[in-house]
Each structure stands twice: as structure tokens, then as C-alpha cells.
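Notes from the 1:1 (GR / supervisor)

We went over the backlog. Supervisor wanted to see one worked example end to end before approving the batch request, so GR pasted a single chain during the call. The sequence is below; no edits were made to it. Supervisor asked that the structure be written out right there so they could see what the output format looks like.
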Amino acid sequence: MEHSSSFSRLVGGDIWLKDENLQRTGSFKIRGALNRIRAASTGELSAGVVTASAGNHAQGVALASSLNGLKAKVFMPTSTPPIKVEATRSYGGEIILVGESFEEAYNAAIEHAENMGSLFVHPFKDKYVIAGQGTWGWKYIKNSKSWIMLSFL
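Structure output shown during the call:
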């Protein structure tokens, strides 16, 4: 947490900020992936985890899966920058490069998940992913003129 003098002066209380770039994967996407995986039943996870992404969501799913002892297959377009592919692989994701666009990689991932019975972790259309990616909330501490930022993870 970093104290923000500017925002603190603006509201007349202490404001602390969480630097999302300091997450292990460099973004808030790990929280959504972790929330989705932790909300799943053992049965849903028995055939592993699948996603489609060319960026931070891929890394989040790979790391969240690894942290939970699961294997993640990550479908990425062939045009994905090598640095994103390697970062995702370094977090334990098995990379499948397919198609020239996200849509093609997405369709291949959905088909694979359905055929294998794997949990598909959608990058943005899943209530658990959305809830987990919620970045912050505010809470006022009575009698102290202070606000704190709450992070979800």
C-alpha cells in the first residue's frame, strides 16, 4: 500500500492505494481467475482448467491454476507476443497457439473444454471472474477522518 498525499489532501483524510502493477502477474487479472477457480467444485476442476487470452488473463489463469495444484491449458492466437507466451508458460500454463485472432483461439478453447469436461475460465463474461477483478472498495473509519482502500484477494 502506498500513501497518497495528493488524494489525502483532496479528501481531508488518509488515502492509501494499492499498486496493481505489483501483483505477481503485473495486473489485477489473477484475482478474477483465482476467484473463479476457488468457487469451482472438485468435479468441475477434475479435468483441469482452460482459457483463451493473449495477455494478462492468460497469466492470471496459469498462476491461479498452479497455486491450486491444477493444470491450465491456455489457448492463444499465433500473433501473441512471445513475451506474453513465455510469461504465461513461466506461471505453469500449457500454451496452445491456434488461429490468427482471439476469436479463433477462443473457439478452439471452448471446443476443447467441452470435449474434455474442463472448467473454462472466461476472460470477462463470468460472475466469479468479474467479482474477483473488482479492484477496490472504500471504508471510512469512524472518528479518525481516514479512508482505507480494501482489496479483494
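Supervisor's comment: The CA atoms of residues 13 and 110 lie 48 Å apart.
Batch request approved.
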